[in-house]
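Record pair follows.
FIRST:
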Amino acid sequence: MSYPELALHVAGQWLSQASGGERGVLNPADATTLGRLPLAGRAELDAAADSAAIGFRQWRRKTAHQRYGILRTAANLMRQRADLLALVLTLEQGKPTAEARREVLLSADILDFQAEEGKRLYGRTVAPRVEGILSQTVVRQPVGPVAAFTPWNFPVNLPVRKLASALAAGCSVIIKPDENTPASCMLLVQMLLEAGVPPQAVNMVCGEPSQVSAALIAHPAVAKVSITGSVAVGKLLGEQAARHMKRFSAELGGHAPVIVCDDADMAFVLKTSLAAKFRNAGQVCASPIRFYLPRARCADFATQFSQAASRLRLGPGLDPQTQMGPLTHAARVDDMQRLVDDALSNGARLLTGGRAVQGPGYFFEPTVLCHAPPHCLVMQQEPFGPLAVIQAVDSLDEAIDAANALPYGLGAYAFTRDLHTAHRLGEELQAGMVGINHYGVSQPEMPFGGWKESGLGQEMGAEGVLHYTDLKTITVGVPG
C-alpha cells in the first residue's frame, strides 16, 4: 500500500489543492517525501467554519441514539482497517507498527466509549420554591462548532479524543491535525463520513499553524476551542479564545516524575519503566522523565536502566524488529542535543546515549542522565524525547517535594509495596493522573487531563463529553 493522496475536507468536499499552497510530508525514518499536503488559506478556513455552522444544525438534530449508532459504526470501521491506519501512521510519524496498531485499536475504544456517554448527558429537575412554577429543569446542550487542534505524536488517538467527544455531544468539528502527520487524521475523517456523519459536520484543515488558529478562533461560527499541544501554544490559544469569550479546553505538556520507594520491586520497576520511557521514542506528554530513588538503591538502578536502554534496537517503524523508532522531525533531534549538552555543561553525568544517530532519518540514542542539577534545562523543560534523568534522594519527603517542584502536573508515578505509602503518594503528588505501580493512566474510561500549567479540562471518561456542552436552566410557569 502506498501513502494516500493528501486532501483537506472543507464544506463537504475533498480538496487536493488549496489557496495556502502546499508542503511536503516526510517519512521520519529516512527523510524521504511521502506526499504533498495542500494548505488552507483564508478562503478555505472561512468556508470550513461556515460549513461547521451548517453541519452543527444538521448533526444536533439527530437523537443521541442516532449519533451513538453512527459513531459506533465508525469505530468498527477503524477496527476493520486497523492495519491500514497503522501503516500510514508509522510512515508519517515513525513509531513501530505494533505501537501504531495499538494506538488505532485504543482509539476505536475511545470512540465507542464517548458514543455511549453521549446517551448519558443527563439533566435534573429541581423542585420549585414558589407557587405557579410547573417545572424547573437543568439540561445540557451541545456548545456548537468546535475548532480542535492536535499534534503529531499520536496522530490517530489525539484527534479521536476530540472528535469523539464533540460529535457525541452533538457538536460539529473543524479538526486541524499536525502538518507532519495529516494522512492518519484524513483516513479517520473518511471513516466518520462513511459511517454517516453529515459531510458539513466534520471539516479537516491544515496550514500555517498560527494563521489557522487565529482565523478559526476569531470566526463567529466557532463556539469552542480544544487543543492538545505545548504549554506555550496552549497559553497563546487560550488568550485568543478568551478575547472572544469562547469555551476553551487544553491538554498540554508535562514533566512526569517517578518516585521509586525503597521497598519497590526493582526488577518490575526496571521492566515497566523502560517500556514506558522509550515508547514512541519518549514523545508522550505523560512520559516518565525524572526518576527519584533512595540513595542506596540509585546507582544500581541507574546502571541497569542505562544498560537496558543502550540495548534497545533502533530502526524504521515498519521493521518488526524495531523497538524504538525515529523522532518525528529534525527539530526534535536538535532539541534533544541542546538539552543533553546543557545538562552535561551543568555537571550532569551521561550514562548512555546523548547523540544523534548517523545516517538517514531523525534518530536519537536512548539517553540516560543522572545527578542533573535542578536549574538545568532538562529538569525545567519537557524533553519530549528518549531522555530520562535518574536522581538520588534521602527521604520520601524530599522525593515528593522534588516531584511537585515544577509548574507542570499532567502525569506522576510511584512504586511501592506499602499500602499506606501508596495512599500518601496518591494524595500528595500534584498531577491530574497518578499511577501507583504502573504507567497505564490513559484509558478510555478514565478522564485524562492535567493540573497547574499542564492544561484545563479533561478528555475521555465520562467527563470528556461534558466539556462540549453548555448548561441551560429551563423553568415553566402556569400560563395566565
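SECOND:
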Amino acid sequence: MINWKQDFRLLAFIQLFLGILMGIPTILSFHFKETQAQQAFLLAYACMLLFCLPILFFTRRTENHHLSSRDGYMFVTMTWIMATAFSAIPLLASGAYVDYSSAFFEVMSGFTTTGATVLTEIESLPKSILFWRSETNWLGGMGIVVLFVALLPALGVSGTLLVGAESVGPTKDKLTPKIKNTALILWSIYILFSLLETIMLRFGGLSLYDAVTVTFSTMAAAGFCVKNASIGTFSSAYVDIVVTVFMMIAGANFALYYKAFSGKIHSVLKDGELRVYLGIWGIVSLFSALSLTFNNTFETFWRSLRYSAFQSASILTTTGFATADYLYWPTFSQVLLLLLFFVGGCAGSAGGGIKVIRVATLMKMSKSTISQRIHPKGIFRVRVGQISMSNDILLSISTFVGVYIATGLIGSVIISLSGTDMLTSFAASFLCLGNIGIGFGEVGPTGNFAFFPAWIKWVCSFLMLVGRLELFTVYALFTKSFWKH
C-alpha cells in the first residue's frame, strides 16, 4: 500500500530544499540588477510555499514512516516532475521563454542532464536565469534525491529505496552500510571534481561565471552552455582538452573513484566496464580523426584528433557539448558518432544512455550464444571484467535494452507526426531518451527544439524523464499491479 502522507510530506520537503538551492541564482539576479529575473524567482518561491506549507501542515502528525518499493517509484517520479514544474517558473516569468511548455522542456532537459534546448539566442538572456539553467544540470547529474538523502537524513525514513529508484545502472554500488553515507561520499567526490575543473578552466582564461557554468554541465554530463556556440565559443585547445577529460571523468562509475581514493587502484584498473568505456572512446576518436584528416576536414591529424576526441567524449558520455558542426564531417565520422548514441556512460556515472556495462554484456551474451550453438553441452558464463553476470541480471539487461529501443522507436513515430523528417524525428527521440542533448538533422549541434510544437516538447520531456530514471521507475506507475493493494 502506498504511504501517501509520507510521500507528499517528503515531496514538500524536497521542493523547499530546491528552493534553498535556487537562492544562488536569486542572489545573482540582484548582483546583476536583473529586475525581471528577481521578480521571477520571488514568484517561484511563492508558488513553492503555496504548495509545500499546506502539505506539511496536514501531514505534521504522520506516524507511519515506512516506505515500500512502490513509494520509492512514486516519490522519485513525482519529485522530478514537481521539481521541474516549479523550477520552470523563473524561466517563463523572466520573459526568457515564450511559453510554459518551452520552459518546462528546458528545465526537464536540465535536471535529466540532457542539455537539449529550445533557445536560439542564449547570450542575451539574464545571467541569473542562465545560471539557474546550468545549475539544474549539476543538481541532476548525481541525482536530486541522492543529494536530498545525503543532506537530510533526519526525516525518519530509509533512503535506500529512494536512491535505488533514482540511481542508474543494472547494479547498485553501496559503498558503505548506510545509504546516506554512500550518497554523501558520491556527492563529495562530485563536488571535488567540480571544484578542480572550475580551477583549471580559470587557468584557461574563462571568467568565474563561465568556468562555473561550464563545470556544472560537464560534471553532470549535461551540455547546457551560456554561449551560443557552446564550448566552440572559447576557441581554445586547452579548454577543449580540460572539458574532454572531465567529460570522461563524469561518464565513469563514481564508485571507482571512491575505490581509488581508498587505495584500491588495482581493483579500478581491472574494472571491465571502465576498460570497455575507455576503449570505445579511444577507438572512435582515433578512426574519426583519421577520417577527418584524410578528407582534409582539418589541416593536421592532431587538430582532427582534438575535435574527434572531444565530440566522441561528448556523445559517449551523453554530455552534448559541441566544438564543431559534425554534420559537415565525413559520413564515416558521423556514423561513428551515431553508434555512440546507443552506448552511453558507465553505470553509476552522471551519463545517460543504455550504459557501457549493458552493451558489453550483450556482446558477451552474443559470443556465449554462438559458443553454445557450437558446443551444445558446454557451460558458458558471461563475464565482464571480473564480474560474472547472473541469469537474473542478464534477463534484466536484455529486457531493458529491448524496452529502451522500443521506446525510442515509438517516440520517433510520435515526433514524426509533427511533420519533421525521418532523421530529425529519430535523432530527437533517441537524444532525449538517452539524455544526449545533440543529434542529427534539425536537432544537430547548431540546431534546437524551438521549431517543435508545444505537444512535441511535452513528449520529449517525457522521454527525457523515463530515460534519466531508466524506464521502469516511471513505467511501473502505468501498470495495474502497481495500484493494487
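COMMENT: The chain has 22 helices and two strands.
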